[in-house]
Task: inverse folding
């Protein structure tokens, strides 16, 4: 269904889903998108949910998932303006709700984005904040004429960016109050990417000062006693920073976590139904499998969600093949820093993810930056909220019936490549980089066991401390090798702990179609006494034969003469490999 409508200055033709002519990659201003004929997936019922929702709402979602576009959409819906903006919504889903359309154009709206306030020091942050708040105050400059002289002087100091730091603490609270009394209407506050400068502060060493500022600024502006003058406040970001850090004064705060079923769950990113309509509109239905493989895999509040930025970029680039579009975002630096500084268990889990395995951990909805590296749960929570993990199948832990855990996995091929990028950087040192090449060539060229022994020994010493090596359990060593084998996924199907013959093989490597026709069976054996590595490896080969693990490779079409059996042991820093 289409409606033809005329605005004051130009005509607009907008279909039922606000899907107009073509994507405008990088455009996150709702009005500009519509005025320029951009293709817009209708998320206007987000406005209805905000009206029906809590006074103050925090919505954490990954970067590039449409947060800023939704925030500007709300601005143009609610904001008082000289020229009507109702035409932007006349053919959208919200137009079917007249009682909600009554709110259109009725409120003073304070819109502020913090994404550009990242600075290398706290002093520079304060300077940038003075400029941003000064700009905001200048938007409402006519208000100053109605203020008492002393308050007007402070207002104008902020406009001129001349106010001392302490006057900034109450700047949001005072602007809300001024707007309410001037317009005789409660105020809507929209704060986009609130955590962007906080992430930067953490990496640059002034996180505590930043926390104090944000607690004062947000706490004063949005606390419950502002209820008479504040209609709604919506805050977006990537993370929910722990309440005790900056939200301690906001008892009226509702957090719409992506883990929760309820409002807002399908309003960021594209649902399967929306993607289907997009593919039909652009006549690229034949690319559905590629798009699902590369950009699907997220689960927000029970909805299957696609990464919108990456999907749009791919469709715009057709017929070019897909490539990672989302990896060079500013949150990568923090993610990489935490992964590389993590301990042995983090490296083991990272390698399990790369091999296609799931992890099971609780996820913390409250993240305190100072504690991220102290607990693996915090690191996986950071990865989940940043868009690098999918969380499914919530279950209470067997060891703690009050602790909810999730099955964590890599959501799609694009994010798999991000992890590979992290691992490649982790392994970039000369010895490690050469070791990985030798590891790969051992399997592709079917080299002698001594090559694998030396390669694994070098890699372990390069990536794990000597102390950790001494206590490295078989399961962790298994996961370590499994992670390295992720480099061979283009030519091998890697299976771990899989039923084979009359038992369970540690690792099976089934060659994909192509020239690498050798299949591998790998068995890990623990060594109990010094000097028993050779015997344990021999026992491993015997186990492969006796349990007939070869049956799985034979069933996959690998002939017996192309099956190589490997038994691997680790004792201290010595690796032993037996092969037949």
Result:
């Amino acid at each position: 269904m289409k409606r033809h409508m005329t605005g004051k200055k130009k005509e607009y033709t907008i279909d039922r889903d606000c899907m107009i002519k073509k994507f405008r990659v990088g455009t996150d201003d709702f009005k500009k998108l519509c005025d320029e004929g951009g293709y817009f997936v209708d998320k206007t019922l987000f406005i209805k949910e905000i009206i029906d929702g809590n006074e103050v709402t925090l919505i954490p979602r990954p970067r590039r998932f449409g947060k800023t576009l939704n925030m500007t959409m709300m601005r143009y819906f609610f904001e008082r303006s000289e020229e009507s903006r109702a035409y932007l919504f006349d053919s959208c889903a919200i137009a079917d709700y007249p009682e909600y359309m009554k709110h259109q154009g009725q409120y003073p709206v304070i819109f502020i984005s913090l994404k550009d306030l990242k600075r290398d020091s706290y002093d520079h942050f304060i300077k940038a904040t003075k400029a941003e708040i000064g700009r905001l105050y200048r938007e409402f400059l006519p208000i100053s004429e109605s203020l008492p002289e002393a308050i007007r002087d402070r207002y104008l100091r902020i406009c001129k960016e001349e106010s001392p730091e302490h006057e900034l603490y109450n700047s949001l609270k005072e602007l809300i109050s001024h707007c309410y009394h001037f317009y005789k209407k409660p105020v809507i506050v929209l704060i986009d990417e609130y955590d962007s400068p906080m992430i930067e502060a953490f990496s640059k060493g002034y996180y505590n000062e930043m926390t104090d500022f944000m607690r004062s600024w947000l706490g004063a502006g949005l606390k419950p006693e502002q209820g008479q003058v504040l209609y709604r406040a919506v805050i977006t970001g990537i993370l929910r920073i722990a309440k005790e850090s900056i939200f301690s004064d906001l008892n009226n705060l509702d957090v719409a976590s992506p883990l929760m079923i309820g409002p807002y769950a399908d309003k960021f990113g594209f649902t399967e139904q929306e993607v289907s309509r997009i593919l039909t509109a652009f006549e690229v239905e034949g690319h559905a499998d590629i798009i699902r493989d590369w950009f699907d895999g997220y689960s927000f509040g029970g909805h299957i969600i696609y990464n919108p930025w990456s999907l749009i970029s791919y469709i715009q680039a057709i017929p070019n093949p897909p490539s990672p579009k989302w990896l060079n975002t500013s949150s990568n630096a923090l993610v990489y820093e935490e992964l590389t500084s993590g301990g042995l268990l983090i490296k083991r889990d990272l390698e399990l993810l790369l091999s296609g395995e799931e992890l099971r951990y609780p996820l913390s909805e409250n993240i305190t930056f100072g504690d991220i590296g102290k607990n693996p749960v915090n690191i996986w929570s950071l990865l989940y909220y940043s868009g690098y993990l999918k969380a499914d199948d919530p279950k209470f832990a067997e060891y703690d019936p009050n602790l909810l855990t999730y099955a964590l996995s890599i959501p799609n091929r694009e994010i798999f490549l991000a992890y590979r990028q992290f691992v490649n950087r982790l392994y970039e040192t000369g010895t490690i980089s050469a070791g990985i090449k030798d590891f790969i060539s051992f399997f592709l060229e079917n080299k002698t066991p001594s090559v694998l022994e030396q390669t694994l020994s070098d890699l372990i010493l390069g990536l794990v401390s000597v102390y950790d090596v001494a206590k490295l359990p078989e399961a962790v060593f298994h996961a370590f090798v499994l992670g390295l084998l992720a480099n061979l996924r283009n030519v091998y199907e890697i299976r771990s702990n899989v039923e084979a013959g009359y038992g369970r093989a540690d690792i099976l490597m089934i060659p994909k179609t192509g020239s690498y026709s050798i299949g591998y069976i790998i068995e890990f054996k623990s060594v109990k006494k010094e000097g028993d590595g050779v015997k344990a490896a021999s026992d491993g080969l015997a186990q492969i034969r006796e349990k007939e693990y070869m049956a799985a490779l034979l069933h996959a079409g690998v002939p017996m003469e192309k099956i190589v059996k490997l038994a691997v042991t680790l004792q201290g820093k010595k690796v032993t490999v037996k092969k037949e």
About this structure: The first strand starts at residue 2 and ends at 6. Residues 474 and 526 are 6 Å apart (CA to CA).
